[in-house]
Amino acid sequence: MEKKLCIASMVVAGLLLVAFVMDLVISIPFGGGSTFLMIDIVGALVGGIILYLGWNALRDLI
Predict the structure, then answer these.
(1) Own/partner long-range contacts of 14-19 (Cβ < 8 Å, ≥24 apart)
(2) Is pTM beyond 0.90 here?
């Protein structure tokens, strides 16, 4: 059960990371622009941090 939760959190964090980086680069999912620049940067950082934390927890479980 714990492994599935770690993998699920990694998948969701990876999707968020991809979405925010795509918005920074090509302005597709959320419309981009200078008004959402800080939100995109913080969202990408948080997605990366959660992805790392999920990977680290999964590594401890295996």
Answers:
(1) 14/47, 14/51, 16/43, 16/46, 16/47, 16/50, 17/44, 17/47, 17/48, 17/51, 19/43
(2) no
